[in-house]
Structure formats: structure tokens, C-alpha cells
Amino acid sequence: MYGGTALIMILSMIIVTSTKTSVDAFRLLPRRIGKNGGTLALFSSASSPSSAAFQYTQLEDSPMVSSTSTSTSTSMSKDQYRGNRNLQHVLRIAENAALKAGEIMRSTSGKIAISNTKTNTADLVTESDILCQKVINDIIQNEFPGDCFLGEEDVGAGSLASSSALDRALFITKKGEGGDSGNACTVDAIGGIQGEDDKEKLLWIVDPIDGTTNFQAGLPMFCVSIGVVSLGGSDASTDDDPQVVAGVIYNPILNEMVSAVRGRGCYLNGERIKRTNDDDDDNDVNDSDDGITLDKALVNVGFPVYSEGTLRVSSRTVTALSTKVRGVRMIASASQVMSWVAMGKLSAYVSWDLNAWDIAAGMVIVEESGGFISDFDGERATILTRDMIISCNEGNSKHNLSKAILQVLKENDCIEYQ
Questions:
Q1: What residues pair up with 114 in beta bridges, in sequence order?
Q2: Does residue 343 surpass a pLDDT of 60?
Q3: Helix, strand or coil for residue 66?
Q4: Burial letters 342-360, b for 16+ CB under 10 A, else e
């Protein structure tokens, strides 16, 4: 039987068919392979949709003016991509990478052992996580060797490691500088720091399997999440805030590919997700000028397993919301939940201590669907925000559902944690 590392190399050769030379991935921290925890079964791509048969998203020319764009706290310039990259092409590569990872996920879900854990026994890693990330990274680096890559499986456990990795990745993407020569984050490790033809470098933030516990148990509530971050253009001297400009979330079991590009709308399997019709009396989203009331909301509450503090505030939130909302769910896959908020299946989502790979793709997807993402101060969230309230398109710019949930959190001591 093959060892874990050898098997990853064999399967990667099967899946990644690009003839271009693979460029070593951008490594923020040493890879954490861990112990071999089971056998990764070979799979047949014939049982799943191929990338050739998939209908890739064709972006519409007309931008969607989301409710976020009309917020009094956000200027229109914040919602426009200011770089010089072809985001249609970027999105296609992201969708292709998601499809390839989805083939692995579909064939191994519920059939693979745990190979390692991170913060505790509830924070799982499988060989599929590692292989999916390698496949995604290879596809991105083959196509865009000048871009940077931040993947969950290359980062150590805990909030500090996650935050530091994001800060480091943003710095390198913006400045094109490594650290000292002995550091893994050198210019050479990124793979061509000058980029291609002086084009803007983008940062790809990836969670190869968001919802690994669900995946390992065979529950169909997991996905691959690929977010693409711009720092405002090719001029590194500017001080623009990092902005997620493209995102893909793909559930291979439900066959839901949710994609978005900043200013170009949100799409489900290539079809644009439209605004809710104001005249639809059967839909709670627009049943009043104030959007969704708390008692008609279906809210997902995060279940952050990293610390007792986050679990305590999560439990208090479930108790506080359960008598005030239509229903509470705890799906335990941030990206999956964000895609369902964008689709209108869920009204809102609240969670604590989220990592960049949990939310990067979901941020542009939710906002381009007309939803709103706030921090616990009620302000618009950024990729650096770790505590969030995500609400669906309410048909206006008031964000009353988000405000109502925030009020419940404050009244029931669900904001602070250690």
C-alpha cells in the first residue's frame, strides 16, 4: 500500500493534466502532513462532471448594484475592481480548480480516515484536504505563476498563526518582498514575484475542504472555497485595502458551483442569482420595507471548535436566538453557509474567530448577491475581520436583520470571548 506522500504525488499526476511546468507553491509555514491515517482510494472521474462538460460562468457586462454599495458607510469606489487583471479568466481557473478538487472530495467523502488534528480532536485533517490543496495550487500556479497562494493546510493551528499568515501573505503580495534569505516566504518561493507582463499580483486564499468533519463523516455539507484578493492594482506604492474580487464555492455532492466577481454579480452554476422580486408576496425577504424581521429569519450559528471561549459564546447565542427566530441551524462549514445565504436558503449567519480561508470567497459572493457582511461593531467587514454577521439580500440598504442579530448578541454577552 502506498504511503500518504507517495499516493498524493500519484493522484496529483492523474488529476492535473496541464502540460505547463508546475511552480512550487507559496509556503507560509512548513507543511503539516502528520501521520498517515488511512488509505486514499483511487477514483474514477467518469462518475463526476468533467471540467470539459461543465458550463463555466460567463460574466454579464452589466454590474449589479448591491445593497452594500448603497450603504451610507461605503462609497461606490469600494465596490469597483481597480486592478488590471482579466477577472473572467481568473474566475474560469478558479472554477476549474474547484471542479478538480471536487472530484477527489466526491470519491473520498465518508471513506477516508483522519490523518491528523490541529487545535484539538474536533479540528480534523485528512489526506484529501492535503491532496485537494495541492491540486488547486498546481492549477493556479501553472496558469498564474506570479500570483501568491495562501492555503489552510500550510498554516499552523490557532488564531495567531492564521492572522499572521494572512498578514504575511498580504505583505508579500503587495510589496513583492520576502523576509530573510532563510525564510520560506522569499521571493523565489512565491514563483516569479514580478508577475506576468507587470500585471497586478493577486492573492489566492483557499480552503480545500471547508467542513472536514462533515466530509469525513460522509455528510454532504462541505465544499471547496477559493477567494481571490486584490490590493488595488499593480502599483505597490498605493495603500488600497485588500479587496476580494472573485470567489468560488463548490459543493460537489449537491453540484452547486456558486461564483462571483466584484461588480459583475453572483452566479449559481452559471446562472446569475437575481434580486428578490419586490412583488413576490410569498417571499419573506421583501414582505416589508424593513426587510426580514427576526422572527422570520433562519439563522446559522457558527460552532468554532478552536477554544472554549468561542464555544461558550456560540452556545449562548443559540439559546438567545432560538426563541426569537424562525429557526437556528449549525452546519459547521462557513463557506457552505455563506453560499446558502447568498442563494437565500439561509437568512443570516453569525460566527466568531473566522479564518481568511473560511470567508474569502464567501465575502464577494454574499455582497454580489446583495447581502451584507458586518463586524460586531456594525461596520462593513473586511478580509481581516474575524467575527462576523452575514445577512442575505433584504431588498434594501437598511440591513435591519444584521442589526437585530447584533443587538441580541450584545444583550446576551455573546460578543467577547477568550
A1: 126
A2: yes
A3: coil
A4: bbbebbbbbbbbbbbbbbb
Q: For the segment 51-96, what is each residue's pLDDT rounded down to a tens digit?
A: 667 889 999 875 544 444 433 333 334 567 878 899 999 999 999 9
CA–centroid distance for 340 within its chain? 13
pLDDT number for residue 271: 95
Provide the pLDDT for residue 68: 43
Strands 148-151 and 265-268: unpaired
Q: Phi/psi of residue 37, each to 5°?
A: -115, 25
**What mean pLDDT is reported for the chain?**
79
Mean pLDDT over residues 215-230, rounded? 96
Residues paired with 299 in a beta bridge: 328, 348
The DSSP element (H or E) to which 192 belongs, if any, is: none
From the number of C-beta atoms within 10 Å of its C-beta (0-12, 13-18, 19+), residue 311 rates as middle
Do β-strands 256-261 and 265-268 pair in parallel, antiparallel, or remain unpaired?
Answer: antiparallel
Predicted confidence (pLDDT) per residue in 98-136, tens digit: 999 999 999 999 998 676 665 555 567 789 999 999 999
pLDDT in tens, 209-219: 999 999 999 99
CA 315 to chain centre: 24
SS (H, E, C) 273-299: CCCCCCCCCCCHHHCCCCCCCHHHCEE
List, in order, residues 6 or more apart from 167 with CB less than 8 Å away. none
Residue 395: CB atoms within 10 A of its CB come to 22
Write the secondary structure of 373-402 as one string of H (helix), E (strand) and C (coil). Answer: EECCCCCECCCCCCCEEEECCCCCCCCHHH
CA distance 108 to 42: 9
* pLDDT score at 120: 56
Please spell the DSSP secondary structure of 344-366, one letter per residue. TSSSEEEESS--HHHHHHHHHHH
Which whole-number Å values give the CA distances from 333 to 301, 351, 354, in the listed order?
10, 11, 11
Strands 124-126 and 114-117: antiparallel
Pairing state between β 223-230 and 388-391: unpaired
Query: For residues 299 and 346, is the Cβ–Cβ distance under 8 A?
Result: yes
Rg, Å, the chain Cα set: 20
pLDDT at 6: 41
